[in-house]
Amino acid sequence: MARHGGFCLSFFFLILGFVGFFSCTPAEAAIKKYQFDVQVKNISRLCHAKPIVTVNGMFPGPTIYAREGDSVLVNVTNHAQYNMSIHWHGLKQFRNGWADGPAYITQCPIQTGQSYTYTFNITGQRGTLWWHAHILWLRATVYGAIVIMPKEGTPFPFPQPYRETNLIFGEWWNNDVEEIVKQGNQMGLPPNMSDAHTINGKPGPMFPCSEKHTFAMEVEQGKTYLLRIINAALNDELFFAIAGHNLTVVEIDAVYIKPFTTQSILIAPGQTTNVLIQANQRPGRYFMATRTFMDVPIPVDNKTATAILQYKGIPNTVVPLFPSLPAPNDSNLALSYNSKLKSLNTPNFPANVPLNVDRHLFYTIGLGQNACPTCLNGTRLTASLNNVTFVMPQTALLQAHYFNKKGVFTLDFPDRPPTPFNYTGTPLTANLRTSLGTRLSKITFNSTVELVLQDTNLLSVESHPFHLHGYNFFVVGTGVGNFDPVKDPAKFNLVDPPERNTVGVPTGGWAAIRFRADNPGVWFMHCHLELHTGWGLKMAFVVEDGKGPNQSVLPPPKDLPTC
User: Fold this and answer.
1) Is residue 139 located within the same domain as residue 189?
2) Domain with 475 in it
3) Where are the strands (E) in 419-537, listed by range?
4) Which of 2, 383, 514, 560 reaches 20 to 30 Å from 218, CA-CA?
């Protein structure tokens, strides 16, 4: 909204594929319009050129800018050879699952040559979120930031930065990602890992042919900067640090937290973190670096991506200083970092933690093996929640639910595992078969839910970032080992726990989350490691309609894609 001398101006402007229409209403809300053309473009990284799927030919894609209270319309036209759908990660989409984006969950994908307009309101949210393709592994290149500014005249609850910058972490494969995944699936094994990590699509000068593919950020001595950090990597939790500079963490997953200062952060795929940095060091050039956290012997892309923080007036010939990153397997640092995250919990930004629980759920996270005569070892690696490997339907679950279409899914997803066992004891390598099904869990409208996600040693323990669509939740507790339903709840933080949309379940441990089911619809919950999602580490909740006038799923838009 632009104001000049008390007059309201309405205008259009075009920038980076962005068309914004600003209208004047008493609530200061605007309508932001974007055109996303999904198109293939040749890109070169690490001395390798290849065609990649992009939005508007950009890698990463364009940033969505909006204010709290705005309406956003994004018309997505698919010119690529793949079906496409886009998820607006962390936006709650109240009653409006049609705009959520996961293919075959809330919509059929947008087919080649077709368009679909995602229309949604940004209500009660401000901060950094992101968008990405939610079909196949296309989010390897189809992703971008969502920056939601507070309402006009509302300050940040931390010192106003001089400038701000987005840092989006990703992964790069030299070969065609979809082909690599196809080969892995045919063998029943994980596909080849990525060839580099990237910061804003660039791996940095430690990689071949990458001097010119290095992101640089100029700063002025004495000024404070806000970094909006997004982990868009497919399979890697990442540490991040800046040489010589502390980071003050002020927000996670678009929720303000009690600020704390740290030398490095840990960020899982799907998560966002806002940090303040002060340009208070000797003017020079400083590397910003990110590399993988993995505390079990599972092979990962362990290469370090770098970008450069450069003080104004310093020539490019000055060699940047390198930060000291945590050891890749530093579990203690990972646990202690996450324990520092606390909601602001002030009158303006309360933490409305559900204190009474209507529904207790306990889900085990497991890897497994199912028979596959054509695969390399006669078995296929798989993954499950409560021993259920989720099977994707042929039509969208939300449509099936809304139109009461039978035979698409069942409502018998188990509230707890079929057989209790010592979840995090010695590795279990026998009886690794899982059951297959499109099984959903039904939740009563406005009921309070507590879900304990328990990692297991089926094949191997591992840290898993879990994302729930349509909701934020409070992480009331985490721990290492087996969850103790008698002792552990006594230690829950019900005062100022972190509020997130994606939680890292610790390696060989558990995380307990709580939320109020006040958003009707079908909402996906899955591991945000793309490998595990593809193996079936996912499920969905059907949150029933309430009885009130604004408590039911909105009717579907007319241009909703069909399967």
Assistant:
1) no
2) 359-543
3) 435-437, 440-443, 448-455, 464-468, 473-480, 499-500, 502-505, 509-516, 521-527
4) 2
